[in-house]
Write a structure and sequence with these properties.
The structure is a single chain. The protein has about 375 residues and is an alpha/beta fold. It has a single domain, classed as pyruvate-formate lyase- activating enzyme. It has helices at about 20-25, 40-50, 55, 105, 120-135, 160-165, 185, 205-210, 215-230, 245-260, 280-290, 310-330, 340-350, and strands at about 10, 35, 60-65, 70-75, 80, 85-90, 90-95, 100, 115, 140, 170-180, 195-200, 210, 235-240, 265-275, 275, 300, 305-310, 335, 340. The strands form 5 sheets. Strands 4-6-10-11-12-14-15-19 form an 8-stranded mixed β-sheet, with helices on one face. A 5-stranded mixed β-sheet has the order 2-1-3-9-7, with helices on one face. A 3-stranded antiparallel β-sheet has the order 16-18-17. The chain binds iron/sulfur cluster (SF4). Iron/sulfur cluster binds next to strand 8.
């Protein structure tokens, strides 16, 4: 039987005998396996045979060995934007989901093959060294920069390596950012203390059209509830906020559903971010997702070159959502992702640098 996830598993030289590779192969029985020298071989083949090369790249799995340093400072800081102290680790590149607004469509257009690094033991060694060498520094580390952190957890079991590692260090927190409902592997782990699982959410009407292949909003909230009940810390990203006719009612219902799933004292934070994109992405989105409603409103370039809704519209959206959340709970921290100082000031009345809670606010 062929896995519905992947058409082929490609093994780069040197990965065949790694324990992680063996685990992955045992979880994908029946999927053809091929040896390759590099991802270029697969990309060249896809370019010859496919019209949607990026989409086709999501259906190939390349197991590779990562040879550099895994831990990076969050690259999210752009001129004029507010970002926070955050680190990223990329164990997977590309994603099985296909959100219309996903920046990977442009960012990975030249190397779209879904790639997973099969040497997580090297990551463990690196992180242990860094965490030990800097006992007074806090490390907030996310794995969801270039993928969904949990969508492939059944097949690529990274959490069983990462979660125990982070639980050994009081100066480290792991954030798993997802739209998935694949939480059973997490629930099977004994300790949840240094892990935040965070869900990106949109109202069902947006998710159904713009977030192809993802579990429903309801399924994500059910997964969040399970993780909360198992003792995990929970975060939510209402991001990207997409303005559409009736957005206020749709987001109000989403906020209601969110608090029905997880009570305020179980929520670490809720982040807000409006739809944004770099110039090159618009053409790709229109080509790959002709049915999208993302461009029904006007967008203008900001200081960092990214296009966004006009500032008054963004400010109104943030203000409205913030009030909806604060009506449910004054205690839940709300922050704005990748926003300018002016917008922060307009919505919150102060700059983020003056906010005592800034150290718990971070963005990806
Ligand atoms: S879940 Fe995230 S990484 Fe995956 S397609 Fe959607 S936006 Fe991209």
């Amino acid at each position: 039987m062929t896995s519905p996830l992947f058409e082929t598993i490609f093994l780069e030289e040197g990965t065949e005998r790694l324990p992680f590779t063996q685990k992955v192969l045992s979880r994908l029985p029946g999927v053809p396996v091929e040896r390759v020298d590099s991802s270029a071989d697969i990309e060249e083949r896809l370019a010859r045979t496919q019209t949607d090369v990026f989409g086709a790249g999501k259906r190939q799995l390349l197991l590779s060995r990562f040879r550099g340093e895994f831990l990076k400072k969050c690259p999210g800081i752009s001129p004029g934007m507010v970002c926070c102290n955050y680190y990223v680790v990329n164990l997977i590149k590309n994603c099985i989901y296909d959100c219309s607004y996903c920046f990977l469509q442009d960012f990975l257009k030249n190397n779209p093959v879904l790639t997973a690094f099969a040497n997580p033991e090297d990551l463990v060694t690196e992180l242990e060294t860094v965490f030990r060498e800097h006992p007074n520094r806090s490390f907030r580390v996310g794995t969801g920069e270039l993928t969904d952190s949990l969508a492939l957890e059944d097949v690529l079991p990274y959490s069983e390596v990462l979660v125990p590692l982070f639980n050994r260090y009081s100066n480290a927190v792991l954030e798993l950012k997802t739209k998935s409902d694949c939480v059973d592997p997490l629930l099977a782990l004994p300790d949840a203390k240094n892990v935040i699982v965070s869900w990106s959410l949109n109202p069902p009407v947006v998710a159904e059209l713009e977030e192809k292949g993802t579990p429903s909003t309801h399924a994500r909230l059910t997964a969040a509830k399970k993780c909360f009940e198992a003792g995990f810390k929970i975060g939510f990203h209402l991001d990207p906020i997409i303005l559409h006719p009736g957005w206020e009612q749709a987001y109000q219902k989403l906020v209601d559903d969110l608090f029905s799933a997880v009570p305020p004292d179980g929520i670490e934070w809720i982040s807000l971010g409006s739809f944004r994109y770099r110039r090159g992405l618009k053409t790709v989105i229109k080509e790959r997702h002709p049915e999208t409603r993302l461009f029904h409103a006007e967008h203008v370039p900001a200081e960092d070159g990214k296009f966004r809704y006009l500032r008054p519209l963004r400010q109104e959206a943030y203000d409205t959502l913030r009030k909806m959340i604060q009506k449910k709970s004054e205690a839940v921290s709300v922050y704005m992702c990748m926003e300018s100082k002016e917008v922060w000031e307009g919505v919150t009345g102060h700059t983020p640098r003056a906010d005592k809670k800034l150290d718990v606010f971070f963005d990806l």
